[in-house]
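Lecture notes, unit on protein representations.

Consider one protein chain, 704 amino acids long.
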Amino acid sequence: MSAEATSPGAPIRRRGRPRIDLRRLGRAALFGPVSRDRLPDAIAHVAEVHRVHHPEADLSVLQRAYLLAESSHRGQMRKSGEPFITHPLAVTLILAELGAETTTLTASLLHDTVEDTEVTLDQVREEFGEEVCYLVDGVTKLEKVDYGAAAEPETFRKMLVATGDDVRVMSIKLADRLHNMRTLGVMRPEKQARIAKVTRDVLIPLAERLGVQALKTELEDLVFAILHPEEYARTDALITEAADGTDPLGATAGNVASVLREAGISAEVLVRPRHFVSVHRVRIKRGELRGSDFGRVLVLVGEDADCYAVLGELHTCFTPVISEFKDFIAAPKFNLYQSLHTAVVGPDGEVAEILIRTHRMHKVAEAGVVALGNPYASEGATQTAEPVDGERADPTRPGWLSRLLQWQQSAPDPDTFWTTLRADLAQDREITVFRTDGGTLGLPAGASCVDAAYAQHGDAAHACIGARVNGRLATLSTVLKDGDTVQPLLAEDAASGPSPDWLDHTRTPAARIAITGWLDAHPQTAEAGRPGMPADPEPQPAPPSVPRTARARTATAVTERPDAAVRLAGCCTPVPPDEVTGIPVRGGAAVTVHRLECPAVARMQAVGRTPVAVSWGEEQACRVTLVAESFGRPRLLADLTEAIAGADAAVISATVEPPSEQRVRHTYTLRLPDAAGLPALMRAMREVPGVYDVSRAQHPAGAL
């Protein structure tokens, strides 16, 4: 927001982008003429750029906003010695260059007034209206006095929630951070590094997702220079050396322009230099850089159809590199980006990458959501987008933002929110999968059936036991691909819960937070996912006269200690009529029930644990874990599931290990209405073709 800053020690400037003279603007801000019939000199630069994109814009509101900002910030100075008003002016100019509309520019001029001056939100609302007030409030930091160390994450949470209702909030924040990064030189190195890391982890991914490439690329270069100065210097030297040599891309661009002229296609052909980070990535990928690796050829046309006409001509007249072709017009990226990407081999053997897009696509590629202006108004009339499957229909409320706003509600702890936000933003690609009811789910690349289950069913996915992917049964760990059809399968037993192993297969914060929350609420179940730990959660307290049992609707184990909690061991999963014994744990406050032959019993006795007598109660329902060993074949999982269902057993959880030497290991945790039916169930599973053994789970037991 209002981070104090000065000129950087080593200026990093993007070619072709004009810079305002901060010292001249500072003098204009303090001494420039301010008359009613003309704009102050300091704001005239912004107005000139704004009129290029919006010729009919009303500049009087910008004048009023500037006068309020200048008068309220008067006397405040940046660490560089410049009047503070130069900061909101620079932020506003950045947004004006991107084509932001007048309301956004008005709010950007005022974005630090409520935070750093005596101006209140009520004053902003009264003078400039509700829209501007909302944008200013959205980018205003929370006070450290009130929030302490949580101020930064909670400020970002507040900003993201505001962005969910008006994306222009984040546009202002990104421009604000860009100017502060440009002028970070007088900060202490450790503070520079801290700000750069937050920019890298949060702001740059947000700029990418919102499609604001002009801000994203410059932020990347600024962060690169601060966090990796040696690599930056090396990349700078390579770019300088290439600029002094021959220009193969210029020759290719000339050839492309000639081909398109002869074909009668009106197009603008430019050479687009790569920014520093892009050159660095290409160098890492290819090792030795070619002359054409320092930029790409950009072809701009009028209509979508012209893009494909250009592509046809280029692939006819040049040798195309087919593996480099991507069509982001037919299938736009989730950040609004549209373009055709291809690469061709020129007469001299140089491979040149070529981008083909319309002028409108180019504007959106550079400015992203900023280029959309006010997404909620059309031709002066308010336009409300109706929700579709819980998401806004307008493109400024994409699926990733809706999911982010949803999961942040389940992360009340600032540390959890901050860590999860960074992890979520690190996932830079999305896939779309289809539900069986015809709806769609947007998920990050690498998402599994677990993620799809929680995206579709919320907390009800705790009872998920598997899924069908493209009509075939699949494990919950199955990674989904773009275009898959997925149907999560839920158990009828709503009391069942997720396994800790599910966390290994989740990519979405919503799923991870839901699973972690359930496991935290059922700590004994969480421990059951580890070898040697009990399988069932801690029972609820019962009256002293009633023996405590392992869990409702499961086999009842009764001990000679009526006040002790009783639970069934997860290492050997005892069920009636097994011969069992009890091992006291937690100083005798609880008793874990093991089968007599369980190796854990001998180990506990060896360290001085004295067993206690345990007997089975009247309740005969039981929960048991079975392991099926089989040869791999089609429909094996479906046949095993049918055999289990035929024995009237409910599946609580199921895992299938990756095949090894054509053999597959299945592990099922089941609930039976009567323990007497266990032998028949195991026989039915053994009779499934391909299954050569079914046994009770016998995990190695750890110290209890």
